[in-house]
Amino acid sequence: MSDLTRCNYCNLKSIKRRAKSKGLVVTKRSGDFGLGGMDVFVHPKEIKICVGDKVQRDKYFVSWLMEIPKYCCC
Question: What average pLDDT score do residues 13-24 get?
Fold first, then answer.
């Protein structure tokens, strides 16, 4: 990883912080494209991100993270 690149732990932490400031929630689901990793969605609390609902998944998708460590490794 480059010295100028943030790790996925810090990226997810930043996504959560921005979502919280807007009153939204973050949901992680396993990736859809067979590459592993996690899809990250930011959405209103009343919305449920369902596996088969492509419209909601496309609307609220913000990031795909290959691996999310348990701590910062920047």
Answer: 96
